[in-house]
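Researcher: Please translate sequence to structure tokens.
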Amino acid sequence: MFIYPGAYVDLSSERLQIISPMRQLRIYCAGVWHNFIIVLVAIAVLFLYPWFLMPFYTTGHGIVITHVTENSAVSGPRGLTVRDPVTSLGGCPVTSIKDWNTCIAASIREPSLGNCLPVSMITELDTSSKKKIDKDTKSLYIDCCNETSSTHLCFMYHTKKNPDNVYACLPARATTDRPICKFQSDCYAPNVEISCVYPSVDNQTKLLRVVHGHKPPLLFLGHPLDLHYSVILSNYIPNSALIPVNLPYAIDTFCKYLISLSGALVILNVVPCYALDGQFICQGFIELTLRSTIPDKEVRDAIFSLVVLFGTVLLALNVTLAMWVLFVG
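Model: Translation complete:
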């Protein structure tokens, strides 16, 4: 009663002995059968609940944020909030959590995407202050913007006249609103020189544009995993503000725990072990199957004792091994 909120029944062994072995088995297996039915019902709900939720939630057109970690890089009034529907990450369309994970993985693996800007606009918007040379590597590193600037970011690009990388301090939001490009050849316009400008950041840092609902896109600058671990997402977007955003997750989690717990109880209770239902199930099964072939009750009792002893030792070894792995391994 104090360890697990389950039911325990102590049946009168004298009354059970006078009924047939088949009826004994029906009584002994009642708890196992009950848990087995719970597992089947939970599996059915797990597969069918998306259909029941269809009138209240939208799927396949994005994902919704169900939780944002406090004091994370994406929290705050201008960051992501609960119930925000996310449809794009760094130019990668997002229609499900699987797409989100794929986009996160792609942003880590691939170089940062750029944006197409006319060279004349780059020159107009550029507020570069200085560039520095790393004393160890003798290479140019990012310092073309004021370090205190919260709206501008250093971008690099090249032109037809200057094939070397050129750095410009540009407004991040206005720049990322432009068409996305991966290569210089992706930017073309007749009679206008256009360059693909890339965020000038280190290999681990990425500039990701998160489109979430009707709000201005969130510009995330950092490692993509920081963004990934800052939010909890769901494939089910509520159709109304009155519909709970966490209901699908709660149903899914409850069913999985119910399947795991009740399924484990089914397996545990059929093990022929002392003090478990399996002990009485084994006894009833032996009486049902061997009474006609082995009429000697002492022999049947000896077989029963050996089977239950083996099951008890096997279960004890499994529990000991599990505790060892949990607390020592």
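Researcher: Any highlights?
Model: DSSP finds ten helices and 15 strands in the chain.
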